[in-house]
Request: fold
Amino acid sequence: MQKPEGKAEGQQPLDDTLEKPETHAPHSKVDDGVENDYLKLRRLLLGDDYSEALHRYISKEEDVDRIVEALPRALKKSSLHDLGESLAPVVDQAIGKSIDQNPSRITNILFPIMGPAIRKAVASALAEMVQSLNTLLEQSLSLGSLKWRIQAWRAGMPYAKYILLQTMAFRVEQVLLVHKETGLLLNSVTAPEVEAQDPELVSSMLTAISDFVSDSFSGGRETLERIRFGDLELYLNVGPHAILAIAVRGSASDELFLHAHTTIEIIHADFAQQLKCFDGDRTIFEKSSPILSECLLSQKVSHKSKRKPWLAVSLIIGFMAYLIGQSITSWQLDQQFKQLETSMASETGYVVISTRREGKRLYVKALRSPESRSEDDIESSLANKTGVGIMIDANVVHFGALPKPVVKPQTNYELFQTLVYSLQNTTFYFEAGKVQLSEIELMKIPSLIKNITEIERLVNENQFENFQIILMGFADSSGSSSINKKVSQLRANEVKSILTANKINADIIVTWGAGNIDRDDVSEDLQRRVTLQVLAKPKKQNASQQGELL
Amino acid sequence: MTKVIAKKICMVGPFAVGKTSLVRRFVESIFSDNYMTTIGVKISKKIVEANDYQVNLMIWDIEGVDVFTSLKPSNLRGAAGVLLVLDGTRPKSIDVADDIYKTLREYLPDVPVVCLLNKSDLDIDWKLESTDIQKLEASGMTTIKTSAKTGENVEQAFQILVDEMAQNSEGSVLL
Reply:
């Protein structure tokens, strides 16, 4: 009712204003008096109200008031889309102008928002980079990566793409379609050979858990989207009336998420009415089985892991074979070295001083006689035999011929003289308080026996006579002289018994214990001893030389 | 083949009145004297017959209500029937029943509610007067004395609820 009134009010002054300029128009001067009368009449009829209305019209105060009142309601009434469309250019322009006029203002407004946003973006980008670097390292340093590289090469695709395919290995084990309001199961499909709990119980419990989490942490505003335990992950796609729950083993790909989204959308489109009025009868939802089955995606990579032990086993076997091979070769080398060393040792005219193994070569230091084979000769002949190199460093020494010039008694007399000389130079030493010979001293016995036997031979050949050996025992200064006498006698007897045990005629041996007779400055070790004295003289034809002998 | 339908029902009531025991008696025919409080919700499944239909009952055994725990509406959502369990030996549980019933009606205005007066085996300690029972029935509930220990009326109580649910949805396609 207000509007027509407003219009009427507005129209009256409109006529008036249209007339008003005419009053000032040049041609109106003709009937000035008529005009004045007309104005007077109007003033009389309408009074002050008229001028007030006129004033209000010109100032447009009323219009502004009315618009202020109507605008919020009008905005509310108009559809958001239309409003946004019509306002967009205006707002755009306004913001543009505002920035032009005072750029610092917009900077100040944006500052607290931009800072955290940029930090968040940088942090997430960094975290992503570290994560991908870590994955890359894991993948490029593992054994499997080598296999993957080969497989990627065989499949003719870039390694990065192949890795992507491999890491996304997963298997959807179960898909549940759950009524959101009641938590009742609408339909479910399970992958073959998967042991699943009663899906009805699972779906109810899932709704309860989802509600619990949602109520506890977000006051019911947000919905639970993921549940993870071990390598099984539950993805919940929540629609207005139904929830699509997908149980995935492994890490699911984006493809699956996309698929799940489309599936829940299709189900809502196909069963909109049935979902809204669901009263417990789920026969109608059996039709959704094919759509749900499409979500049972899988990638077969995870099955390959079962074969992994074979790779490890063959690797270990290979390694062991290598080790065995190595030890066999080193044993063979060792044998070759030993063979070389023995052949070197048996080489006539060579005395090996030292050998050194280095790699596949034997370094030999030796002395050689001038008549022996040359080093090069030996080197080449031995190298051909064994396959192992040999380096000989030999100094020529005239040792091979030296023993020969040793003066050999030209006559029996000279031989006799030598024998007697060596006999008389033999001394047996004893340890303190001991009357038995030590092991070391016993070693003097064989040569002594040999010499005595030789002398006996000469005696028997009737060249010498009166052959007698005097064994004289001595003792050190400790102990009484009677004991020393006794000990020295026992020591002489000991040597005699050893000689007689070695088939030396006891009749030619005389023993005597001298006790302690040495000077004080002779060391005690030397004092405990048994010495030999030989008595013999050549038969008459050699008599001239006898004096010299004894 | 009979038609199979699924229904959600809720067990509500004050704590320690025997909700879980009733469910165990009904579903597994077991009774244990040990009291173990329910936290959150436990869901069991039982198949019953009604009007030539096979009804898969999903029984939501909801934690007991006390001063600190109130009934969570999210647990009640979509229930087709409710069993309100009270302890006949604890007259105070009647007062709590009033509050619970109001909450139930707020979220589930039309579903049938059957009131189970549990622990009927404890005659000596029985404290409920007939006036109390009349008061409960006046508010629109069917009442029945039950004992999870002896099994008395347990099957019947669930059957009454299922039948009432069937009547409630008469005129609609099912039950």
Remarks:
- The CA atoms of residues 187 and 286 of chain A lie 6 Å apart.
- Chain A touches chain B through 22 residues (CB under 8 Å).
- The two ends of chain A are 177 Å apart (CA to CA).
